[in-house]
């Protein structure tokens, strides 16, 4: 998507916001700020312009001013009236900060002091100006070119006083003077949007939350490049504008991620392909600091689920993952924080989630990946569409790995005997003696009618005998029971998907949510 539009850049230190223009292309988000540039003639000073105004009988200096030291901003030109003195010079612009009046420095002057100087400066007033590139949005300066027709400011009227009529009144000398006009060899200036920062979108990430917290910014977000360069906080005038920009930028990042995946997959064997990858926020468990979340980069590749602190750029980078888990032994769960509490509890009971996750979490789109030894990782993403993609990608990656692997065997024990327990995609469950290899029992997936465990090492599996229709209970002990239970879940889900893919799709929580919205 390509897109341009006006937004605000919020400065958290000064708590001011500045008008900017955003330009989005397929690969880059560019921030532009307005500045005055010399378009012809000899530009003696790129930053400062000195202009002589001749006060006219009607309209005076032909400009209005706002701001002042009492507001912690310089005095700036807030209006330029068409065909009057200031406009005729061609060298003054809305947003120009007044540096000097007739040689007197006014950078730290109050509004009234500058008004007094301009009113009493005589018929010929020489002012030195510099364009204020970061004019706080509370000044409500128009963004267009000079003239009342384009006087569309970035919001409602400013709380600051706009000195216009009394400033442009006649001085004591009412004799008409010749109009201010540009001299032939004087440099000519124009106000233009200039690129100030370009953020590459490849492997970039977006955050709508205040750094590390679950506090959602109002109609605002930040885009961070792979190298850590940030756009700063981009603010929008409406929730709709914010959502549109968020979606457009996210789409372009996703498209570039897809390209990176295709490039990476050219160097990988068919059994080691990248299924999906992208940025998420991981919730930090047991932390006392305000840093509740940290950016992590997740990847589903071949037989593994990877967690990185920074994205893998080269082939060698894949070995430096913070965590690597076998896909057969993880369990993906969506946290339905947007649904009614009773439905949340029902789902928890049905899915057997025992973890006491913080239900007060303000982040809307969350999922957890449960791993071995009862541990889990809790993640959040920015958009519901991202959540749906992760849900689908985990399903696909796990199903592919189950079909590729075919079977998984785990060492276990019961009543002092060392046994082997195999989960096989074609055969189901088999238990055999680890020494003699004699098969002790075998059941199909369809014969498993229930299970219970002690949450530590021991599990009871309830199978129905096909001949007697009686339930047979098999008890086993595993070193990492969670990994085995996740593996059983993965194999059964893959088996169901191979027989009835429509059923698996119908169980998608994230996509149901998206369609209902």
UniProtKB/TrEMBL annotation:
It holds the Pfam family Syntrophin_4th. Keywords: Actin-binding, Cytoplasm, Cytoskeleton. GO terms for molecular function: actin binding; structural molecule activity. Residues 50-133 form the PDZ domain. One of its GO terms (cellular component) is cytoskeleton. It comes from the Eukaryota. Its main location: cytoplasm. Residues 143-186 are annotated as: Disordered. PROSITE patterns: PDZ. Residues 143-160 have a biased composition (Low complexity). It is found in: Cytoplasm, Cytoskeleton. Belongs to the syntrophin family. PANTHER family: GAMMA-2-SYNTROPHIN, SYNTROPHIN. This is SNTG2 protein. It comes from Urocolius indicus. The gene is Sntg2.
């Amino acid at each position: 998507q390509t897109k341009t539009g006006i937004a605000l850049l919020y400065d958290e230190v000064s708590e001011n916001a500045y008008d900017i223009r955003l330009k989005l292309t397929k690969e880059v988000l560019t921030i532009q700020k307005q500045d005055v540039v010399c378009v012809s003639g000899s530009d003696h000073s790129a930053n400062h312009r000195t202009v002589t105004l001749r006060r006219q009988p009607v309209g005076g200096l032909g400009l209005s001013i706002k701001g002042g030291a009492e507001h912690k901003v310089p005095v700036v030109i807030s209006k330029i009236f068409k065909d009057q003195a200031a406009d005729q010079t061609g060298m003054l612009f809305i947003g120009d900060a007044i540096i000097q009046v007739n040689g007197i420095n006014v950078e730290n002057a109050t509004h009234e002091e500058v008004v007094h100087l301009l009113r009493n400066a005589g018929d010929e007033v020489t002012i030195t100006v510099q364009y204020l590139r970061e004019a706080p949005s509370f000044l409500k300066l128009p963004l267009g070119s000079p003239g009342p027709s384009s006087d569309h400011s970035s919001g409602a009227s400013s709380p600051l006083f706009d000195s216009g009529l009394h400033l442009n009144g006649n001085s004591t000398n009412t004799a008409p003077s010749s109009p201010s006009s540009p001299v032939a060899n004087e440099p000519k200036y124009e106000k233009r949007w200039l690129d100030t920062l370009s953020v590459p979108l490849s492997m970039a990430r977006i955050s709508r939350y205040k750094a590390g917290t679950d506090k959602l910014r109002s109609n605002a977000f930040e885009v961070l490049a792979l190298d850590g360069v940030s756009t700063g906080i981009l603010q929008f005038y409406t929730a709709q504008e914010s959502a549109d920009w968020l979606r457009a930028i996210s789409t372009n990042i996703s498209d570039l991620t897809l390209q990176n995946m295709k490039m990476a997959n050219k160097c990988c064997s068919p059994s080691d392909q990248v299924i999906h990858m992208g940025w998420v926020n991981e919730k930090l468990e047991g932390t006392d600091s305000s840093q509740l979340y940290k950016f992590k980069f997740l990847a589903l590749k071949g037989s593994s689920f990877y967690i990185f602190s920074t994205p893998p750029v080269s082939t060698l980078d894949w070995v430096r993952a913070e965590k690597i888990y076998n896909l057969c032994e993880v369990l993906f769960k969506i946290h339905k924080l947007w649904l009614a509490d009773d439905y949340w509890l029902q789902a928890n009971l049905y899915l057997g989630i025992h973890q006491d996750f913080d239900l007060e979490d303000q982040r809307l789109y969350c999922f957890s990946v449960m791993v071995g030894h009862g541990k889990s990782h809790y993640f959040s993403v920015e958009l519901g569409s991202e959540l749906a993609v992760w849900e689908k990608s985990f399903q696909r990656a796990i199903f592919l790995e189950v079909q590729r692997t075919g079977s998984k065997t785990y060492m276990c024990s019961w009543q002092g005997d060392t046994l082997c327990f195999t989960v096989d995609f074609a055969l189901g469950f088999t238990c055999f003696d680890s020494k003699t290899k004699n098969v002790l029992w075998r059941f199909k997936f369809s014969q498993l009618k229930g299970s219970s465990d002690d949450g530590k090492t021991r599990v009871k599996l309830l199978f129905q005998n096909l001949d007697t229709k009686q339930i047979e209970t098999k008890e086993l002990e595993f070193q990492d029971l969670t990994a085995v239970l996740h593996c059983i879940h993965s194999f059964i889900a893959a088996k169901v998907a191979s027989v009835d893919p429509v059923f698996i799709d119908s169980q998608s929580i994230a996509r149901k949510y998206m369609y209902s919205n």
